[in-house]
Specification:
The complex is a heterodimer.
Chain A lengths: L3 H13 L4 H14 L13 E3 L4 E9 L2 E8 L2 H14 L4 H6 L4 H4 L14 H17 L2
Antiparallel strand pairs in A: 1-2, 2-3
Helix pairs in contact in A: 1-3, 2-3
Chain B lengths: L4 H6 L7 E2 L2 E2 L1 E2 L10 H14 L9 H21 L7 E4 L2 H15 L5 E5 L8 H10 L2 E5 L9 H7 L4 E7 L11 H10 L3 E5 L11 H4 L3 E5 L10 E5 L1 H6 L10 E4 L4 E3 L13 H17 L1 H20 L4 E4 L8 E6 L4 H9 L3 E2 L1 E3 L4 H7 L4 E5 L6 H18 L1
Parallel strand pairs in B: 3-15, 5-6, 5-7, 7-8, 8-9
Antiparallel strand pairs in B: 1-2, 4-10, 9-10, 11-12, 13-14, 14-17, 16-17
Helix pairs in contact in B: 2-10, 3-10, 4-5, 11-14, 12-14
The chains are: A alpha+beta, B alpha/beta.
């Protein structure tokens, strides 16, 4: 199984094939459209992270020793970025998630979506991913 | 003076830049307007030449700064056609002005008294009144909205009664751009002895309100939406009402005499201007008002109306578009969505092409709830925008739709 770092590098590689933002965004939109990211039963109020603009649902559970994330959003770009984040962080060990470096987001040209002004729920989602890791680590 | 759009655009240095490698198209004027060079220069001039605290010093600079600040007040008085300059209070903005009045009313209201707001309000004209209700035991009533974004005036008439103490509505809706029939709203309220506050935040960039003709008790607005600096604003209030309201904040400037036993308050307008005000801001707001008047509000309105018609026509050609606020009496604001597409996705993609619009609920969630949507895309035009810029937005939207569908 690949580590967080390896998965991040894989994604950076994929994104480096795109010449401009249009291709990058089209890829993100495709990711957003194609993936069933969350089971309907988890799309409930308590899993909802309210952004000012788009909303994110995030569910976490422990499978064996790893944290498995599923998530969704009402905006397709947000959902596509979530797909990238889930791919990096899901099915990883809680400690690795807690200590993970996030700079790969800059490298794939999506930094603006994770700035607080975007208010799309992604910044809170990142915080929530780490909080889940902490919570699920301590209730071993 | 002729309306020379190219010359006007040269007044705004920020419009000359590129965003994401594309010429900036700034259609988020409802959030804040851009500033002309005369306003920027006036800010620099104030801090380079005349900065001093006002109303206190006997020295030269303090006199110069005080004169400039008070001259700005008189300019704004004339602009609004207020009877007296002491009816013009400088504030930090619309939100500040509304909170000042609502806080004062919270001490005057009795349990069971009624406050009327409208369904079209910005959160800033809802929450302060809910807070006043909590403190006083007054009850909040809401004028309903119709499908086309206009207010249900028959329902409003039915809400009015002798318990109604204040009616507070916006002149123009920020989310939809609808111009409300405020003269009729004010006259009806007066039949029941209720005071009226008009939130003019979205109106003052587009038109020149005449507070005596309107006969409203309060009219509030922000400076930054009308080419002035951020953190500036005005609360116009009828003199008798400003005398009736208790002070909002205590401090320097607002007192007549202070002892530990009892403090007496200064007269208007100082009673409501505690502490050192935004001196530069007030002076520069006066410069912004002069600038707008030098162009002329008739010309501003005519140009913006043309932009609104052109943009509405061009947008209508895009497949799946849905407009919100279709009532005919509106200003240069267009709120819309595309079927099955989230406004955030549209906003984020056209930003990549240099187009700045607002997306989201526009701090007017009750309107979004009415239409059962999470938000809209809002393009709001100013007098310095052009049809060519609208064409660029349409091209950007076409590309976004192609990517998203």
């Amino acid at each position: 199984m690949s580590t967080i770092k390896e998965r991040q590098e894989e994604i950076i590689d994929e994104f480096s094939m795109f010449d401009d933002w249009t291709e990058r965004y089209e890829y993100i939109i495709d990711l957003g459209k194609s993936l069933p990211l969350i089971d309907e039963q988890y799309k409930k109020e308590e899993n909802l992270i309210k952004g000012c603009q788009s909303q994110v649902w995030l569910h976490a559970e422990k499978v064996d020793d790893n944290v498995v994330f599923t998530a969704d959003s009402d905006a397709i770009l947000t959902k596509g970025i979530i797909a990238v984040l889930v791919r990096v962080f899901s099915n990883q060990n809680p400690e690795e998630i807690m200590n993970a470096d996030m700079s790969f987001i800059d490298e794939i040209g999506l930094k603006e979506h994770l700035s607080p002004t975007r208010a799309n729920g992604l910044v809170s989602m990142m915080k929530q991913i780490k909080l889940y890791a902490i919570a699920l680590q301590s209730n071993q | 003076m002729n309306f020379d759009i190219h010359k006007i655009r040269e007044d705004f240095p920020i419009l000359q830049q590129q965003v994401n490698g594309k010429p900036l198209v700034y259609f988020d004027n409802g959030a804040t307007s851009q500033k002309p060079q005369v306003v920027i220069d006036a800010e620099v001039h104030y801090y380079s030449k005349i900065n001093a605290n006002i109303h206190r010093g006997v020295h030269h600079l303090s006199q110069v700064a005080t004169d400039a600040y008070e001259e700005a007040r008189v300019k704004i008085q004339k602009h609004l056609n207020a009877k007296n300059s002491l009816e013009v209070l400088f504030t930090a903005g619309t939100t500040h002005g509304i909170n000042l009045v609502a806080s004062g009313f919270s001490k005057l209201l009795q349990p069971g008294d009624e406050i009327i707001v409208s369904h079209l309000e910005h959160h800033s004209n809802i929450v302060p009144w809910q807070m006043a209700c909590e403190i006083s035991g007054a009850v909040l009533k809401v004028i309903p909205m119709l499908e086309d974004g206009s207010l249900d005036i028959d329902a409003y008439s039915a809400l009015l009664n002798p318990k109604t103490k204040i009616v507070t509505v916006n002149h123009i809706s920020n989310a939809l751009g609808i111009i409300n029939p405020i003269k009729a709203i004010i006259d009806k309220a007066h039949e029941f002895g209720a005071a009226v506050l008009i939130d003019g935040a979205q109106a003052v960039p587009h038109l020149k309100p005449d507070v005596q003709a309107l006969d409203c008790e309060f009219y509030v607005f922000s400076g930054h939406k009308m080419c002035g600096p951020t953190g500036t604003g005005v609360l116009y209030g009828k003199e008798e009402w400003l005398n009736k309201l208790p002070p909002y904040q205590g401090g320097g400037e607002m007192i007549k005499e202070v002892t530990f036993e009892k403090t007496t308050y200064a007269c208007l307008p100082h009673k409501f201007e505690a502490g050192t005000p935004n001196i530069a801001g007030g002076i520069v707001l006066g410069v912004a008002v002069d600038y707008l008047n030098s162009i002329g509000f008739e010309k501003i309105e005519a140009h913006e109306r043309e932009l609104l018609h052109y943009a509405t026509e061009q947008l209508s050609l895009l497949e799946g578009i849905q407009f919100y606020g279709t009532h005919s009496n509106k200003t240069s604001v267009i709120s819309f969505n595309f079927e099955g597409i989230h406004p955030y996705d549209i906003g984020a993609i056209i930003d990549k092409m240099g187009i700045a619009v607002r997306t989201g609920h526009h701090c007017a969630q009750p309107i979004m709830n009415y239409f059962e949507i999470s938000g809209t895309v809002r393009a709001s035009f100013a007098f310095y925008n052009t049809k060519e810029e609208i064409d660029r937005m349409i091209e950007a939207l076409k590309k976004a739709l192609k990517m998203l569908r």
